[in-house]
Write a structure and sequence with these properties.
mainly alpha, 4 helices, globular
């Protein structure tokens, strides 16, 4: 699968935004997300996700042209969890 660079940038911005959020909120995790690109073993992950979605963090992400629409379409048709 080829993902256009704008959508790729949206995914990377989303991941970096979540990493920044966990650091600012002092949410502990078991490994360095900058190295692995994912965060796992977060206690009460649904509460953390809701907190991330409800704050200003998502509004700081940069979306280009139709990249968010493309990302949502791709996510809806694959087994992708953001």
């Amino acid at each position: 699968m080829i993902i256009c660079s704008d959508v790729d940038g949206v995914i990377l911005n989303y991941i970096q935004g979540f990493i920044d959020f966990t650091r600012k909120e002092k949410i502990p995790y078991s490994h360095n997300p900058e190295l692995y690109g994912v965060i796992g073993n977060v206690s009460d992950n649904l509460k953390v996700r809701d907190q991330f979605y409800s704050g200003k963090y998502l509004s700081q992400l940069k979306f280009y042209d139709d990249s968010l629409e493309i990302l949502n379409c791709w996510q809806a048709n694959t087994n992708c969890i953001l």
